[in-house]
Design goal:
By secondary structure, this protein is mostly beta strands. Helix content is 8%, strand content 45%. The longest helix has 17 residues. The protein is globular and about 70 Å long. The two termini are 25 Å apart.
Length: 412
């Protein structure tokens, strides 16, 4: 089934982005179905940290190191230069590439090669983007990671429709994982990237399901009376934190998906919801109104001791801990407006990340450098991304439906 893809719109980039020239790859006369160099340029610009020099401004198109003349790139104020070529052997495509530091007039990435089938040309491009990004920034690239999100269609005169979608992190190659006439909520990748947990209302009550990405095989994990919601994978991939109201009040539980052992983590008359594990798996972050208004708390999984984590702002919800365990990203309400914010877990300092309102559902990239979230733009629900230092922002609107509930995959 053909799907409408998300498209990237950079709404704010870094003040001084790194200027890079990605020379069109020499293709030996091959007619490729994907423009690898263009995908690499778009990947790097997606972060807001890079500005790609337009092809129309390039003075030369070197195919190898001997054809690189640094003066051509100094004129364009390029800081880095990426060149490469693609050739076909025995039905496979081999992309070779080299990266040069223009100012230092030296090669910083030796000639490397990556290969795949024609259907994998976009994967080859993302692989090259990852290498270039890590070489220049020292941070692992996320261009080969994936997104899962929900598309919602409200159809006049017809039943609503909901789709669970999988795509590249830039929104390309979207494909359908599940379609339902009932809401799909809270998708969450397993730590190994092979499964997704989510809530579906397709039965007589909300229930938690786990689905294998590759095969589509599904399993319903919960069928308790009342609320069954907000599944969150533990770092060990064997337990889910989730919200159940089977005993009358929404509380945080853990479920061992192998033994099916259920353990109650909270016990309070307030509403406890939106669990997320700490990076080391020893604690669960959750939202509770036990103090009067929703704030973020943490329960120690071993001792069940609960402590409040957020104090700044009228409300703080949907907490997510960064992969390095240093930052807490959340939906932060101040002055009646909902922004995304990041709190340093050591100092407590809070930083507002977004300027729009109604921002929700943050999900952090596995390298901890960016986060994706749902917001509204042009009257529609869209996805957007922001760097954790708030310097760059990107929108990924869709041509159809409201897009919501993003979940960023782990590294594969």
């Amino acid at each position: 089934m053909a799907q409408a893809q998300l498209t990237i719109q950079i709404s704010r980039g870094a003040d001084n982005p790194t200027r890079i020239a990605v020379v069109p790859m020499a293709t030996q006369g091959l007619a490729l179905s994907e423009d690898i160099s263009e995908i690499v340029s778009n990947d790097l610009e997606f972060t807001g940290q890079f500005a790609a020099i337009p092809r129309t401004d390039m003075l030369s198109f070197p195919r190898n190191e001997a054809e690189v003349h640094y003066r051509d790139w100094n004129v364009l104020k390029a800081e880095y230069l990426l060149i490469g070529s693609v050739e076909q052997r025995a039905g496979r495509y081999y992309a070779s590439y080299q990266l040069f530091d223009v100012l230092g007039q030296r090669k910083v990435l030796p000639k490397l090669s990556v290969d795949g089938t024609e259907a994998q040309l976009r994967d080859l491009a993302h692989h090259i983007s990852d290498k270039v990004y890590e070489t220049i920034t020292g941070i692992r690239g996320i261009f080969s990671t994936k997104l899962i999100y929900v598309e919602a269609f409200q159809q006049k005169g017809r039943n609503d429709k909901y789709r669970l979608m999988l795509s590249d992190v830039d929104g390309a190659r979207s494909r359908l994982l599940l379609e339902s006439g009932e809401p799909i909520m809270s998708p969450m990748w397993s730590p190994d990237g092979r499964r997704v947990a989510y809530v579906s209302f397709e039965s007589d009550r909300p229930a938690v399901y786990v689905q294998e990405i590759a095969t589509g095989r599904r399993e319903q994990l919960t069928n308790f009376k009342g609320l069954n919601g907000a599944p969150a994978w533990a770092p060990d991939g064997q337990r889910l934190a989730l919200v159940l109201s089977k005993d009358g009040n929404p509380e945080i539980y853990t479920l061992n998906i192998i033994t099916r052992q259920l353990s109650r983590m909270t016990n309070h008359f307030g509403i406890d919801t939106e669990p997320a594990w700490t990076a080391d798996g020893t604690g669960i972050i959750f939202t509770s109104n036990r103090g009067g208004k929703p704030q973020i708390y943490q329960v120690n999984v071993a001792t069940l001791q609960v402590e409040r984590v957020t104090f700044d702002g009228e409300q703080n919800t949907r907490g997510r801990v960064s992969p390095d365990g240093k930052s807490l990203v959340m939906v932060h309400q101040r002055g009646g407006t909902y922004h995304l914010a990041a709190q340093d877990l050591k100092t407590g300092n809070l930083r507002i990340l977004t300027e729009t309102d109604l921002d929700e559902s943050p999900t952090i990239a596995p390298n901890g450098a960016m986060l994706m979230y749902a917001t509204r733009f042009g009257g529609k629900g869209i996805l957007a991304a922001v760097s954790l230092d708030a310097r760059t922002r990107v929108r990924l609107p869709s041509k159809q439906g409201d897009v919501r509930e993003p979940a960023w995959s782990p590294f594969f």
